Inverse folding.
């Protein structure tokens, strides 16, 4: 089980703790330090569509209108912190949050 998020994100840390309390041994993947491969970004976008992007984030608010109009895959590649997190991956299945 992998938790995709940011190591300094409160929600990611809370998910890691909750999963540990449930008896899981999650591995944190800090998506800034270890950017996701194109295939994994595509799988996340396929699973969540528009919900893959956190439009309430500071990163999103800092983007220009032209940047916001770009394809989501490109936005996630250039700005990993835009991903709504955490995303939990287990056996190739993705889910958001707990």
């Amino acid at each position: 089980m992998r938790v995709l998020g940011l190591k300094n994100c409160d929600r990611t840390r809370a998910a890691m703790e909750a999963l540990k309390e449930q008896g899981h041994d999650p591995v944190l993947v800090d998506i800034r330090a270890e950017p996701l491969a194109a295939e994994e970004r595509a799988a996340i976008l396929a699973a969540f569509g528009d919900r893959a992007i956190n439009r309430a984030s500071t990163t999103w608010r800092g983007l220009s209108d032209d940047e916001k109009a770009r394809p989501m895959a490109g936005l996630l590649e250039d700005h990993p912190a835009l991903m709504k997190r955490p995303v939990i991956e287990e056996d190739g299945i993705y889910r958001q949050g707990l």
Remarks:
- Residues 2-91 form a domain with the Glutaredoxin fold (CATH 3.40.30.10).
- The chain has one domain: 2-91.
- The chain has a mean pLDDT of 95.
- Strands lie at 2-5, 27-30, 87-90, 93-96.
